[in-house]
Amino acid sequence: MQKDTEQFRNEYRTTEVSKNYSGKLHFAFTTSWCLALIGTCIYFIHQPTWKEILIIPISFLYINLAEYFGHKGPMHNRKKMLDKVFKRHTLQHHQFFTNQQMQCDSVQDFKMILFPPVLIIFFFFAFAVPVSFVFYIFWSMNAALIFAATVFVYYLNYEYLHLAYHLPDEHFISKLPIIKSLKKLHQTHHNPQLMNSKNFNISYPIFDVIFGTLHKEK
Ligand SMILES: [Zn+2]
Ligand SMILES: [Zn+2]
Known about the structure:
mainly alpha, binds zinc ion
């Protein structure tokens, strides 16, 4: 391991990770809340029309675009209002994990990978609820619920993929072909020379292809 990365990791673990923190609990919280929200939405959806079902691929693309600009924007460019986002991503996540050292050492390092639990609640109120409400007012309850369910499926999928990229190479999940190829793209993004210009999609690189920022290492 590079000396700088090791030093940063040790400092982060002593100053930023409280003794009460549990990576397993963090993972369980993210999973159970997302599944509860998804399950609730699905439970109340009744006989959706094909037009309502079309909301799924369209919102998937919309969230993929939001992921691209959220990462390219505030996560990598300091903005006064979103300074915490920049600090957590560029100054911490990218120091903790570089293209030379992608893997976490224990479940306690999940703190540096998964979004803080409060963000699920933030996403719920700041993103899913207002847009779902618009769908409800101008379209139907089904449309609102399908949109909200898609947001939380995407969120959970994003968290699982990002976690998978930072698991040890020997882990069976790291050996899955889909994870291997997506991880390569994220590993390239963790190269300090490329992090501000390449591979901003963390899940599926749809908008990296569209905007020409996809970079595949040979
Ligand atoms: Zn990462
Ligand atoms: Zn980044």
